[in-house]
# Entry
Amino acid sequence: MIFLTFLVVLIGWIFSLCLHEFAHALVAYYGGDTTVKDKGYLTFNPLKYTHPVYSLLLPMLFLMMGGIGLPGGAVYIEKWRLRSRTWETAVSLAGPFANALLALTLGLILQFAPLSASGIWPGLAFLGLLQISAVVLNLIPLPPFDGFGAIEPYLAMDIRMKLAQAQGILSWVVILMLWRIPFVGDAFWGLVFFFVQILGVPIQLAGIGFDQFMFWR
# Structure
């Protein structure tokens, strides 16, 4: 069962990564950046979205440290081609919206799942929890997260430039705060579990999936 859960989560996570980045690219395409089609982003090919740090290192680190979902792909949008600031915001929010939609779909499916440690159900439940954690994490309004991309068009240029220069550091600051500052971690997981209940993902089943996926603990 451990291997099955690990496989379900791994394959599901790769699919969700592609879905997240495809959503960014699709909205950008309709918003005016048609180059995303030439770059191959309007596909579900994970190789098109791979970045050695953001696609591999950081997502695996987040999963191993506590089961937080971090969509780790990278699509390069030529923002100057987008027709308005509203489209820029829509492009940024499209990725988290795709994760939320997948979590909702899993929640609906899991309404018919048995509360059992067998089969694919624990893996699907944990995958649903990962999607919700990815949404909450990505909506943090700091670079390099999508929440910052949503508000960036409305900030003064000097503020945007300063925050963009610090985005590499800020991502690690957020990681450290989540694991080292109790009230930050509690607030984060409180939001995650709030939306887990709203979207219908069985918390107990997700816990079983977490234990099976994190078999090395």
User: Anything to note?
Assistant: The longest helix spans residues 2-31. Residues 2-213 form one domain.
